[in-house]
Amino acid sequence: SISSKTPWSLRSSVSESIERVAVCTGELCQCQEIGGDEILANLLSRNEPYEIEETVCLGACGVDAMVSIEYKDGTDFLAMGLQETLETLGLDYAEEESTLQQQEKELSQQRQQLVVEIKE
Q1: CATH number where 31 lies
Q2: Whole-angstrom Cα distance, residue 89 to residue 1?
Q3: d(C-alpha 58, C-alpha 73), whole Å
Q4: pTM of the model
């Protein structure tokens, strides 16, 4: 996999080799810690040069949210979850992890505020 410390030119060549990314949004891929819909939204927000679409069942149900990465040379790779997907695509997971931690913190604060309001 390619880390966030990989030079941009190498990450760029990774994205140029990708034809299409298909994210499973089937029921079991939604039950994971980070579901298929979240992975799909994350990838679409990045404005990558390859096709990104939603699909159903990639045949590895219940393991993790599954993502099929299809390359221009006809090969493909089945990634499990957000971290492996981003690493395989040469994208920065550390930045994503920081964003997720911030979102979790904000949600926790909102929950605490709701509890206080309900008690009042």
Answers
A1: 3.40.30.10
A2: 8
A3: 20
A4: 0.67
